[in-house]
Amino acid sequence: MAAPRLVEPVVRFCAVISRHAEARQWALQRLTQRWGATAEISLPSSFTAGGFYDDEMGTGLTKELVAIEQFADPAGLADWKTTTNDWEREYAEAAEHEETRPLNLDPGYVTQAKLVLATIKDRDHRLYLKDGIFAEVTLNFMGGRWVHHRWTYPDYRTDSVAEFAMRCRDRLRSHLLETGGFRRV
Predict the structure, then answer these.
(1) d(CA 134, CA 129)
(2) How do residues 112-171 score in pLDDT, each as one tens digit?
(3) Which residue(s) pair with 104 in the sheet?
């Protein structure tokens, strides 16, 4: 009979998307208050998603990726998404923006081999977790670089995301080397 093995910790991150600088700042404060200090924050980048979010979020969106310093158990992914959905609603109700969804928060994690996102949208390549939340392997680390899939969102196919993911991966590998936390076959 197979026995469960050690699951390596992950670098938890959250994509923060809004056209309002104050919304992104609120999200950063909420993330650090609830999840802890940040380890990495990507440079802000333009986010369009082919106009998918225009009706509910407006245009001129900016996205930042925020990695949390404390390593996490990947089993928490569905709970992280439920929490960030609650924070989105909280901000929308408290802020005085014209958009129905002035803030979009998308959590995920980075391992040595993959970047995973949580979502509420079911597709053929996504696995159900719980409570209406699915997981998607968005990028894989292969041959010394990050590789995307046919389903990878265009904004996750960029050099800046690959660089962010590499910094997260390198930090995780250093931690695993220091603690002897590598999973053994």
Answers:
(1) 5
(2) 999 999 999 999 999 999 999 999 999 999 999 999 999 999 999 999 999 999 999 999
(3) 17
φ, ψ of residue 111 in degrees (nearest 5): -115, -175
> What's the Cα-to-Cα distance from 98 to each of 6, 89, 101, 144, rounded to whole Å?
47, 14, 9, 44
3-state secondary structure of 163: helix
Q: How far is CA 129 from the centre of its chain?
A: 16
* Sign of the four-CA dihedral 108, 65, 8, 154: positive
Per DSSP, the chain holds a count of helices (H) and strands (E) of 4, 9
User: In angstroms, rounded to a whole number, what is the distance separating the alpha carbons of residues 8 and 185?
Assistant: 12
Q: Does the pLDDT of residue 49 top 70, yes or no?
A: yes
- Note the Cα 9 to chain centre separation in Å: 15
φ/ψ of 6, rounded to 5, equals -55, 135
